[in-house]
Amino acid sequence: MTTSHTVLAELESGVLTLTLNRPDKLNSFNEEMHLALRAQIQRAHDDDAIRAVLLTGAGRGFCAGQDLGDRDPRKGGPKPDLGHTIETFYNPTLRLIRALEKPVICAVNGVAAGAGANIAFLCDVVLAAKSAKFIQAFSKIGLIPDAGGSWSLARILGEPRAKALTLTAEPLMAETAADWGLIWKALDDDALMPEARALAAKLASGPTLGLGLTKRLIQEAATNDLDTHLDRERDCQREAGRSDDYAEGVTAFLEKRPASFQGK
């Protein structure tokens, strides 16, 4: 597994907290940080002790997207292949986040620009400080929204707002993002991390097998027709109903006590 100071990792009580840690660069991505984040998301797939992931940023921002300092055209040389960057670094990590059958909570503690915003939108539950803002900065430098942005924004907000945000690159403040349904909640700045940690701990102690199946079904719903999806619900409910967590949940309900779930 890749370890790096660019992504801090802490595992406690089933929650893997990942902190993007290039605060002097607003946590913009370089190659090292790409690989470090991917390694930690892969760790979440592989380690049964991890039952939820909490992603946030160090310093005054969440993530400013790609570090453009490495792409200075004034230095000369061949033109960059940005498709290679997306295919090699962004897409594998984003696919791992979506495929992880454990909750991924994102706490946006400041500006989230470009790919930084779009990585947040692909997480399962997004909380943001009220001072945070989301910026589709791509049009300012002649690029298209990547890291799933054109997919997420269109599906969540619809064409009119998705096009306006991406074409104008106007900042979207956290409270408006919450009102539009783009994120879950906008919180007072000092309440962000306590609430994010509490939510991550709550989900990590829950019936995480069932939570993972729920995540899978909701993600499939956009492309399934109703008949197909009813069959998928049947299959996933069959799997959930055979789990130890279901037996524990029903037993705890009948015994009028809190359930002790194991994610199995």
- Name given to the CATH architecture of the largest domain: Alpha-Beta Complex
If you compute it from the alpha carbons, what radius of gyration comes out, rounded to the nearest whole angstrom?
19 Å
Low-confidence stretches: none
Overall domain count: 2
N to C succession of SSEs: EEHEEHEEHEEHHEHEHHHH
Sheet with most strands: 6 strands, mixed
Give the % helix: 40-55%
* C-alpha geometry: globular
Full CATH superfamily name of the largest domain: 2-enoyl-CoA Hydratase, Chain A, domain 1
CATH topology of the largest domain: 2-enoyl-CoA Hydratase, Chain A, domain 1
The average pLDDT value, as a whole number, equals 94
Strand order of the largest sheet: 1-2-3-5-7-10
CATH class descriptor of the largest domain? Alpha Beta
Ends distance: 25 Å
Total count of strands: 10
Strand content: 15-25%
Structural class: alpha/beta
Number of helices, where a helix is a run of at least 4 consecutive DSSP H or I residues: 10
Explained architecture:
It is a single chain. By secondary structure, this protein is α/β, with parallel strands linked by helices. It has 2 domains: 198 residues, Alpha-Beta Complex (2-enoyl-CoA Hydratase, Chain A, domain 1); 47 residues, Lyase 2-enoyl-coa Hydratase, Chain  A, domain 2. Helix content is 45%, strand content 16%. The chain is built from 10 helices and 10 strands. Helix 1 links the parallel strand 2 and strand 3. The two termini are 25 Å apart.
